[in-house]
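Hey, sorry to bother you again with one of my protein questions. There's a protein on my desk that I can't quite get my head around. No rush at all, and the record is pasted right below.
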Amino acid sequence: MCSRTLSRLRQNFPYIPPEATVDHLVIGAGVVGLAIGRELVHRFRSRSTFVVERNPQPGQETSSRNSEVIHAGIYYPQDSLKTALCLRGRKLMYDYCRKHEIPHKKIGKLIISRSREETEYLQKLYDKCQSLNGSQDLRRGVMFGRMEDRDEELVPFRVIDQAEAHALEPDLSPDVSFGLFSPETGVLDSHAFISSLENSIENSENGELVYGTHVVRIDRSSTDQGWVVQTQTNADQPGEGGGERNSVLAKCLVNCAGLNAHNIYNHLLYPRSRQLQLGFCKGSYYSYGSPKGVDSVKHLIYPTPIQQPTQKSFVGLGTHLTLDMNQKIKFGPDVEWLTTRMIKANKGLVGKCGPDGLAADALEELQDFWTELLVPNDQRLETTYQSVKGYLPGVDRDHFSPDYSGIRPKLRTMEGSQNESNQELLLNGNERMSDSQLPNLDDFYINQSEPGFVNLLGIESPGLTSSLAIAEHVAKLIQQLPSGLSLKSRQSTAHERFSAVGHLDDWA
């Protein structure tokens, strides 16, 4: 892996004028980027939409390394985007899966407690569910104003006692004394869902998917409304020399690059010494290859969530049991915070950083350092086993084996000073905001950070469940943006459209 940093990219790829124009350029073809691309091509049929992905296939990072669960939407603050978009997204997801024949199963979920403190937490969680069900504003958003559905609960949940918990799942520990049951929680084949979104874009007349292409530089256009985006395709070492370079003017740029989204946004902040940083939270999954101790399992089983020290948020949903569409059992994810690798801004550069660069002693993130850490940590297997044994005492350690791991992009890092910096960088220059108006680093951040630049940051769980609702939300944000050129127009302009530029056909 080369030592790719923002300043190195800026030096390796000096500004070049755009060769073509596109109305919407979406960076990232994970499940959220694909959902946004699909929404844009169908909602704005007279505009062009391109989705650019650095990997050779879609959904290769966070989107393909998760639990494949359709979440109920109960864990997050009532006024958060996570709650609103998860509830709306769950409804859209089930509708989409039925319509497009995506394999899915409404399997139900048990959240269990084994202590007085955990029971108190779950009782408060149930009370919150009742509050969500009573919110008319939330209902209008989830149901899109169709109040004829007012008798339908937004969050169907019921309290179960010890007897019912063990009737539902006989393999549970006798210590399990209380629980909540969510009948609306399910699982899906996320790969089939991703493929369906991909096909929807590819089969449209105004959308294109571009794989194997890295965004290496972004600049504000000095002559047109929009953003000059420089890309590198088919390079042996992305971010270094080689490969094919293109420069395009994007009237609207949508940043949903997931684990790389902060680095994309930092192009706009450059050359400021402070840069946005994410917290990288790795979670490993372990397969279980025996019916021993789980022979009767029919539902997803979740322990009480792992709390942050402040008790205002949680790190993860605990090492839970999930069943995939083939009834295969896996346990995970655990929680392992990664240390972001930083290097000096001038390391490996030719000459010194000048007026358009960072100070020589500034530290920058070594981009994509986490790619070397995606192997499940087998040293954590024992901890996972002990965690699972607490609620499924019959499991056998010998049948646990590392399966895969994923990394959650979190806006809240483990460093308090960096969290303060992140909030300030996301204020958009509005320094008069009260503390209650500061960006919530535990929530999704979806905002038009600059005119024509829609920023999606910290899109972790429940991102898969929320993906179709996130796409609706983003489409509303850009509803009023200029529509750009007509796809049917072939008149001479300062920048021709992608579809009209012959030498860019291979790029698409």
Notes: The CA atoms of residues 46 and 488 lie 8 Å apart. The longest helix spans residues 81-100.
